[in-house]
Specification:
The protein is an alpha+beta fold and about 230 residues long. The chain has one domain: RNA Cap, Translation Initiation Factor Eif4e (2-Layer Sandwich), CATH 3.30.760.10. Helices cover about 20% and strands about 30% of the residues. The chain is built from four helices and ten strands. Strand 7 and strand 8 form a beta hairpin.
């Protein structure tokens, strides 16, 4: 495929595709279905991303102690161009408006946001958090957007290591995690962690937790790396 010069996804396109919103059952994020694009918004005139990305939503109302983990997790929408990303992003609820217990994911197309996925099984995650409260809503949304833009815009030097990200809305403290593929590659994970801190413009230390440690030790698991 010929090289395509892609603009930075930070700049939102001036024109957007008409969208129609459909509210899902109570507790879920608002999904979107694009209408047929006008000729000027045809695929030939869009700016393709290096990878397709899929948003996933884990509905807290579908969770129960008896249910298998991940049974309430489902894909919402897959996008493959800069324009489709902004159309989708502008028509879903921001993390600060999701109810407590919700998890919203964005992962490379073909990768499920589960430890069991072969491309996640040997990996781990960097995490940061913001205290819950009205004063921190803007920060949470900003962290989420900047994380998404860094991922789909390939701003990480070790870009192939990135699997996706998840924002977890909780009563006391909201969290955002960046998942990667190879936990044993310390150089790659440290590079990603430092760059992610720069993207978020934070000075506090962040930790990297290996999925296998979390699976075996649960709350007793310790960070493998910190930056």
């Amino acid at each position: 495929m010929a090289d395509v010069e892609k603009p930075s996804p930070v700049a939102e396109p001036a024109a957007s595709v008409d969208m129609e919103k459909q509210e899902l059952e109570e507790g879920e994020i608002v999904s979107t279905e694009p209408t047929t694009p006008a000729p000027e918004h045809s695929l030939e005139n869009k700016h393709p991303l290096e990878h397709g990305w899929t948003f996933w939503f884990d509905n807290p109302n579908g969770k129960s102690k008896q249910a298998t983990w991940g049974s309430s997790l489902r894909p919402v929408y897959t996008f493959k161009t800069v324009e489709d990303f902004w159309c989708l992003y502008n028509n879903v609820l921001q993390p600060s408006h999701l109810i407590a217990g919700a998890d919203f994911h964005c992962f490379k197309d073909g990768i499920e946001p589960k430890w069991e996925d072969p491309r996640c099984a040997q990996g781990g995650k960097w995490s940061t958090s913001t205290p819950r409260g009205n004063n921190n809503k803007a920060t949470l949304d900003q962290f989420w957007l900047h994380t998404l833009l860094a991922m789909i815009g390939e701003q990480f030097d070790e870009y192939d290591e990135v699997c996706g990200a998840v924002v977890s809305v909780r009563t006391r403290q909201d969290k955002i995690a960046l998942w990667t593929k190879t936990a044993s590659n310390e150089a790659a994970q440290t590079s990603i962690g430092k760059q992610w801190k720069s993207v978020l413009d934070i000075s506090d230390k962040i930790g990297y937790l290996v999925h296998e440690d979390a699976r075996r030790l649960d709350k007793g698991a310790k960070n493998k790396y910190t930056v």
